[in-house]
Amino acid sequence: MGALPTTSPSTSLGLTSRRFRPQESSSTTCITSLLVMRRWSAPRVRVPRQDNRRLPLSLPSTSAVTVARIGRKSYTVQAAVQKTVSRPRDAHGPLLQERSAADHPAKARRTRPDPHALVAPQLAHLRETLLNLLGSSHPSLTEIAKYYFLHPSKQLRPLLVLLFAQATNGLGGKYPEKKWAAECEGAGGRTVELDSPLTRPDVLNDWNPNMPDHTASFSNSFSLRPPRPPQEPPIPPPEPSTSLIPALSNSVLPTQMRLAQIVEMIHVASLLHDDVVDRSPLRRGAPSAPIAFGNKLTVLAGDFLLGRASAALSRLGDSEVVELIASVITNLVEGEILQLKAMHGEELGLTRKPSAVNSAVGQDSWNVYLQKTYMKTASLMAKGCRAAVVLGGCREGEVWKEVAYAYGRNLGIAFQLVDDLLDYEAGEESLGKPGGADLKLGLATGPAIFAWEEHPEMGPLIERKFSQEGDVELARELVRRSSGLERTRDLAKAYADKAKEVLALLPDSDAKSALEVLTERVVKRKH
Questions:
Q1: What CA–CA distance (Å, rounded) separates 405 from 365?
Q2: Origin, by domain of life (predicted)?
């Protein structure tokens, strides 16, 4: 088994220097008020190219492996949207120019907000009201669906949705309309309306012992019921003047709060299914759902959560958001298939044809690993962030949702790289799940693949998925003797740095600072 090629991926992690040329935007902050707001600008913000040669990273060359572009290149804001950024010039100078801490010692000393503390009331309310969405006519199903929500968690995905809502609400051209919908009865954006079904409740629930007898009973044929009289929706206000300067509202809309709950429901549904597939005994420091309730009920509970999330998603009233989040569920399934192919490819008939080139096994390992990392972890973060900004009124062509997607994508990959690193470094007590689980499942993650570059004997272990006696112990020893752990953390930091870089396009706010803090914590976390 040959060693991996030594082409370093760090050059592909450099963010190409681009110029953003602002033009006028039609965004405004409110229909009913014409406040004089402070102008802000960022003329020709240049994102500098980093010197990545210091990172001791190495991956297969991109010319040899095309699919790996998903993981090896940090995602950046696309040039196609640069021309639409609105940044009126401030008489006192640009707000978003890169400046050193030495130029602003007071700013450097300022205490940055804690991400969780900044939105702690919203997170607490989100957690309390989320359980109300999980009720079923079957008490056992309700119990399983709520099981993981009752144990402590990072709540990272809803946290990202809430922080991006606060960091961008007021900047999008359609924000006044979204704000109006959140306040106007009948417009569909109020919390009480998000809890109301779009179809008659007796049709949606079908058989349910809590429903009236004419619906719950199947002893008689169902009689035709007269349709409900249509309700005329309220007329939205006219488009605001394009001369108003966009400004942050520092708020979270009800639709964005509900989105935060939806992404957490989808995440927990994926955990339920993963724990069945991976036969995991622990989750969040407690017995996993398959251990507590069995595989069949756990799978059904995951399906039930996805159904509840889909119904809540439809009531948000935004087709772009529905498309984004629906594609996340697709990505989760595709990512799981990639992982199953790596673990049980032969028995599932998913094996690839053997390659004549020995190093192709390593290239394929990087392909599967990084693509799977995006699909199973980063996709939900990236598209959840983007959906939050869309619900805040970002128009097509405005840069804010591109910033959100680039941030979430890069942060998600960094998060999973650190998670795979901790599988070697941390124990069950700190992780809340078994350590060393990846190798036992036959999965080669970043530390093992990096170790292969330095120890060719790792190749046969990866190829046979650590299936022979002593393979797992030998693989862990090879990782410890290599720089695989350090290089995986460096790679995670490179992705986190890119996530932090794209935030420069947002106006300064506590939410933006909290997102910056979050990128640092993701890399430094110990559990």
A1: 26
A2: Eukaryota
**Is 94 exposed, middle or buried (CB count within 10 Å of its CB: 0-12, 13-18, 19+)?**
middle
DSSP label at 209? T
- Give the CA count within 13 Å in the CB-facing half-sphere of 281: 5
- Report the run of H or E that residue 453 belongs to, with start and end: helix 446-454
Does the pLDDT at position 46 exceed 60?
A: no
With 0-12 CB in 10 A as exposed, 13-18 as middle and 19+ as buried, what is 66? exposed
d(C-alpha 111, C-alpha 109), whole Å:
6
Least confident range from 169-178, 349-358, 369-378, 399-408: namely 349-358
Tell which wins on pLDDT, 48 or 400. Answer: 400
Contacts of 154 (CB under 8 A, 6+ apart): none
Element (H, E) at 286: strand 286-287
Residues 6+ apart with CB under 8 A from 383: 324, 325, 327, 328, 405, 408
CA nearest neighbour of 494 among 7, 70, 14, 66 = 14
Cβ(137)–Cβ(208) under 8 Å?
Answer: yes
pLDDT band at 132 (very low <50, low <70, confident <90, very high): confident
Give backbone dihedrals phi and psi of 286, rounded to 5 degrees, phi first: -135, 165
**What are the pLDDT digits (tens) for 442-494?**
888 999 999 999 999 998 998 888 889 999 999 999 999 999 999 999 999 99
Whether 387 contacts 322, CB under 8 Å: no
**Separation CA 479–CA 468 (nearest Å):** 18
- Where do we find the tokens 């087709």? 319
pLDDT tens-place string over residues 304-347:
999 999 999 999 999 999 999 999 999 999 999 988 886 665 55
Match 């001791």 to its residue by tokens. 56
Distance CA 77, CA 42 (A): 16
